Each structure stands twice: as structure tokens, then as C-alpha cells.
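Researcher: Before we compare anything, I want clean individual predictions. No alignment, no superposition, just each chain on its own. First chain goes here; please echo the sequence and then give the C-alpha cells.
Model: Echoing the first chain and its structure:
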Amino acid sequence: MRIAISIDDTDNLESRGTGEIASLIAEELQQRGWGSCSYITRHQLYVHPDIPYTSHNSAMCFYAEVGEGWLEPVIEYVSGFLEKESAPGSDPGLCVAVPAKMAARNELIAFGRRAKGEVIGMDEAYDLARRLGVHLSQHGGTGQGVIGALAGAGLRMSGNDGRLKGFLEFGQPYRMLRVDELLQHPVVDVVKSVTGEALKDEDLVVLGEKPKTVLLEGESVLLVAASQSGNCEARWQTLHRKQLKAY
């Protein structure tokens, strides 16, 4: 059974981030033999004076493949973990959804998209979670993280939002690789030009600082643009961090 686990607002300015908390949860689920976990995606939400957040207002979400009998133990464990490990002053929220059991997944996706551009209240988040049969719970502070947690689950399910947590490492000092070599990385599903131009396996790509993939059409996509490096061999280069903010 595939479940989406989404968390939000677990940190403060001095603590480890919500992405690190998500990584620890995923690692523990696997170590306990409850299931296998996917990569973690970061979903940017609305930044507004009426919304409390630490630094960027982003939720973290990942999929886990678990046995039918492990859903409740997983929810219980993650709930307890957030209560113990979230930073002082944070307002942690947890969402656990089973996509296959949701009749109106489009409503959750729409909620996530709205949360990227408007202020939404906790009552609305809880009402939607109840209607859709989605677990939603607060684990400290005001509990306002439930809004972002629910939104993060919807955005992950959309398949077209978010950047993957962490940066790509290729295990060698090369700063230029062929497209087919990039595709050998376990997290890279697709290498794609931002302009839609077709890439060839033999095309060379200059790797910028800390390359990262984004979630597009349900796949982990390494986006590239026309090379500005002056290297006549390479047609392409990875996007820099400012360009990736659009995702």
C-alpha cells in the first residue's frame, strides 16, 4: 500500500530543518521493516504576514510502500517522533494519505495549489481531511503546520510541484557529463531542456553548483538550459538555484 507522509513547521531558525526531520522519519520506517520510502520533495507555500513560518514556508513529503497492517503503527510512530523531535516554538503538523483510497484526490491537489497563493485556515484543512478520509494531526504549538502538511500531500500527488531534497552527487570529480551518464543516477528519471528542445544521449551537460532535480509529471527531472560556460563541447548546463525557485 502506497501512502504519502507530509510534514510542516517542525523547526525554528536554530534547529535542523523540516527536511532533515523527514529524512530521519523515512530512515526509521525502513530500519523497522515497515516499508520502503521514496525521495523527499520540498513544496513552497504562500509567504504572507498572516502565515507563521520559520524561513521559507515549505512542506516536505515522501511516499512509503507499507503493508496493509502498518498504516496505524506508522501514523502513531511519526506522531510521537514529531512531538519529541520538533523544535521549541514550532507548530508541527502531520498528514498521512492513501492515494488509492481517495475518491476525490483532485480536491486535495486543488487545496495544495491554493496554499501556494492564499491564506487558508486550519478549520478548512481539517474539514477537507475528514471528507477525504485523510489523517491530519497537530503535534505542538498552535498546530498550524497541519495546513502546510495537507497542502504538501496534495502537491506531491499532483506530480508537478516541488524540488527534491538534497543535491545530486555523481561520485567523481567531473563537472561535465553526457545525458546518458546523468540518467544512470538513481534519482534522475529524465533530463529535460527548459525550452522543450530534444536532448541526445551523447549531449554534454556542464554541472553547476549543487545540481538538483524537480518533480514534473510524476518524475524526478534534471532540467538543463543552453550552456553559458564558454565550453564549446557542452551544449547544456544545469539550472542554478535561483532558476529552480520557480519549481
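Researcher: Okay. Second chain, same rules.
Model: Second chain and its structure:
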Amino acid sequence: MRVLFVSVNSSTGLSSSLSFVHAHIYSNFLKREVDVTILLPLDFDKSSVYPLLLFNDGQDFPALNLSETAARIQHAQEMRPMIIAGIHANHRRIDEYGTAIRADYAGRGAEAGATTSFVISELLPFLNEQYNVRLLGNAYAGFSLGGLMALDIAWNHSEQFSVAGIFSGSLWWRQKAIGDGYEDFDRIMHAQIRETAAPPRLKCWFQCGSNDENDDRDGDGVIDSVQDTLECIGEMERKGFVWNKDVFYTEVAGGEHNPSTWGQVMPQFLRWVSKVLD
């Protein structure tokens, strides 16, 4: 890994948005330059150690109004100081996000293992060196396929990421197509949770919108994204996770699969993260 370029916006104080840095990092694992947006907390002091809230799809920060939302909540002292960083995806997103354990039935997500290695072995050390981000006990979140990727990394690297946020997660991710005899046990993340002998210590926040999609593969009146999310939580409960203690669920009435809905619930999520991070 090498840092290619860093640009800085230096707004501070009572600004309506947080100071930010754009870093361009070459990843030896992904074999490409990775753009990362880094939001610095109010009164950032490099001599202090900060927890990290990492997001996939950092290119969507403007659409989420994330910088403005985080600044408002920090000004209100409803959020602890933390570094917020977002990994930008590119045209290879469908290959780089997924579950590291296996690709889906169409071969998508085949590079998810490389993304995991980038996050753990390249990005975290960079953020630690440059911004004094702690290496353990951080939070990881994402949207749609990025939410699945965040959960997968947190599940398998819970020392580094003890908190996960999954917004409209692609928990349908499966090893068999619907038309090829698909059954619910073909969902890859559900199976990984079910087959984990010693589940990690992890707190997870799941979100779905009631209009996240229209598909209802089993015709039970519950859209697939909600069903897949609730049944993923069910797998976790069977492993000992406790509802509203270890796993939390927010369903947005009329919410859709887009940054507008995710931005709507972002204040709630940021306050929750601030409370549950050790």
C-alpha cells in the first residue's frame, strides 16, 4: 500500500459540515487505487485516539448528507468524537463486495476476500498512522451490497470491528439461482452464521424500508429484503444474540432502497453507534 495523494478541506469550529480528507491509496490486494473520504471530528486532535466508523460506498457521502448530519449531532453532543471514513467503490463493486467465504451463484463477489485484506491489512494501519484511529473495537457499516460486505467483515474480524450497521443489506446473496431450485438455506450469509461454531461478540444494527423492493419470492406478503433481514437476525438469535441488546432492527415505513431513506435514519444510527462502541 502507498498513499498517492491527500487533499484536505479545513473547515472547523461551528461549520455545518465536518472537515474532510480525500486520500488516494494504492492497494496491493485490490491491484488498484482506492479513494477514501475521511471525515474528521470537531476539534480533531491527532494526539487523541479515536474510534473509527467505516462505511462502504463512501462515494455516496454527499447524497447521504453524512458530513452535515454528523456535524449537527456532534454539535449537540449526542455523538462521541470519532473518525468517519468511506471507501469509494468503482465499476468493480459487484466483484469486490460480497462475502469472502464464497462468491454468489453468478460468480459475483469473487474479490471480496481482497477487499477484506485491504481493509484489515492496509486501510486500518493507514488510518491508525495518519489519524490515530484505534485498531480494535471499531464500527463498520454499508448500504445494500456494501451492507452485506460490512457484516461479513465484522462477523469474521470482530476484534477490529465489534459493531456493524447494515442498511438495506443484500442478504439475499445466494449460492443458487431462484430458477435452479433455490431454497432459503442457499443464502450465503445466513449459512455462514448458522455454521459458525463460536459466534463473535458483535452488536449489529439492521435497517430496511417497507418499499425497499417489490419482490416476494414465496408470496407470503413480506418483501424479500425484509424477510431476508429478519431471518438473518433469527439465525443470530439462535447463536445467542439477544434482540435489542446485541441486534437491533429499524424498519422505515415507505422507505426505499436509496440514499434518501438511508440518510433519513442516519441520525438514529450515529447516536446508536456512539452509545454501543466501547
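Researcher: What stands out in the second chain?
Model: The chain has a mean pLDDT of 94. Additionally, Residues 112-131 form the longest helix (20 residues).
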